[in-house]
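Hi Y.,

Following your request, here is the sequence exactly as I used it, all 379 residues.
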Amino acid sequence: MKSNIKILIVSVICSITTYFIFNSLNVSKENNYEVSYENEIISQYSLNKISNQRSVNPSSSLPDLTFAASKSIDAVVHVKNTTIVEDNDSWALQFFYGDDSRKKVGTGSGVIISPDGYIVTNYHVIENSSEVIVRTNDNKEYEAVIIGFDEIYDIAVLKIDSDKRLNYLFFGDSDSTLIGEWVLAVGNPYNLNSTVTAGIISSKSRDLNEYDQKNQSFIQTDAAVNFGNSGGALVNIEGELIGINTLIQSMTGGYVGYSFAVPSNTVRKIFEDLLEYGDVQKGLLGVRGVALNSPYSRQLNISETEGFYIDEIEEGFGADSAGLKRGDIIKSIDGFKINRFSDLSGYLSSKRPGDKVEVIYVRDNKSKTTIVVLKKSSN
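Below is the corresponding structure, written out as tokens. Let me know if you'd prefer a different format.
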């Protein structure tokens, strides 16, 4: 009897012990699972957080410019201009050397825009030249013929003959470029062939001198441009030509952060006009006036502070025929916003006589729309 009681007591104790051990193991397993699951969530959150942090890191959004550079280098050429300079006042040189002239050599850049050898450059690169030599990126030299030029926009068109198809750049749409967009300047500064620099578009429709009657409208960029870059390419990240690098603004004569390019839409129109007509066709609106700002608006006693204020309508031109009047304020043309005269002249520089443009303007504080047919200057 006593032995049976002992066996029963031992069995109960073993059962209780087993129960507590089993429960302890289950709790530990559940706790381990919960900890593991929580760690997995924390780990995933951390990874997502790191991933999100990386996605907004500015360095990860920088564009790859190598494609644009490789596409552009072989289409940009070195241009050498030889000019005969007369030394009429130097009787000593004439006495000793028997000639009153000497050769002056200038250099710049150019851009091949067709496989058969048409090239655009700056007019000042080939101005007064007696000979123009073009050297391509494979070091071959060609004598170039000057097809024509536009002195106001500082653009010239050259032609070389080659026995092979040449690398060239396609025109991009300079009107669609954006401030802050990445660009490359490609040229031959200081005779350093095929030099590529990068920057962004800093401004558009920039007129460096509003009083010189040239009505220029430049793309401003901070890509480094120096002597010898004139006539070279300004390209977007797709390798499309969006401008011809033309000048820098500097107190020292070297690059200080500002360079300017003639927009590609203007360049393309000049090129096409010279080939088709032999000169540049300018489509004119026929208005004179001033870009509005706060001081002018107060002076004119009007509320508008943006746009182009028409002060004079030229009789017989498109604006006159379309019913525009003195005091009207042009706000946009073909959807292109007009804030200053360089916006107006820059956009119209890509238009020809006979082209129609949609003009949105303000008269008596009411917005109106009209269609204007551009006309050719009588000059």
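The CA atoms of residues 10 and 178 lie 89 Å apart.

Thanks again,
Q.
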